[in-house]
Structure of SMC-Scp complex subunit ScpB:
Amino acid sequence: MKDIMLNIEALIFASEEGISAIEIKNVLQDALLIEINKDEVLSFLDKIKVKYQGEDSVFTLSPINNKYQFLTKVIYHDAINQLQAHRDRKKLSQAGLETLSIIAYRQPITKLEVEQIRGVNCDYSIQRLLEKDLIKIVGKAESIGKPLLYATSDQFMNHFGINSVKDLPQLKDIINEENSIGEIIE
């Protein structure tokens, strides 16, 4: 009996979008070579639900659209939302990484200077980097129009595990002769 209940828990856990009682019944019959009916499956599901209602569990068994799935309890949603926000902040597109690299090595730098180096508009990348708190506005340039100057933030240092921009790899350390084009002139 306990083996059946554990198998049901495993099926629910492994189901990305939930699993119905009928699906559980069919899978158990094929996998364990047993006869089980839908009412027995529902009885096991009730026992599993009771098992996870205790305070020592972060999960609950929830039927959604006649499919059962494990969900975290509501009291943990704030922590999970924070985790998702933290992970979202870590993801950068190729354009974002290129823009961030230029700002890191050439800071303080204006958006126009970044665009001249990249050769494309950087509005979106700079906005995303500001939202992710990887760069910050550090002032205004003395040139015409007083454009904003951008530099890396403390969050940038934390994210990449460095103490200062001096800890960034030097370009001469990254570029090797195999990746260069043309002749080397000394």
Summary: Residues 38-51 form the longest helix (14 residues). The chain is about 50% helix and 15% strand. The chain has a mean pLDDT of 88. Residues 2-76 form a domain with the Arc Repressor Mutant, subunit A fold (CATH 1.10.10.10).
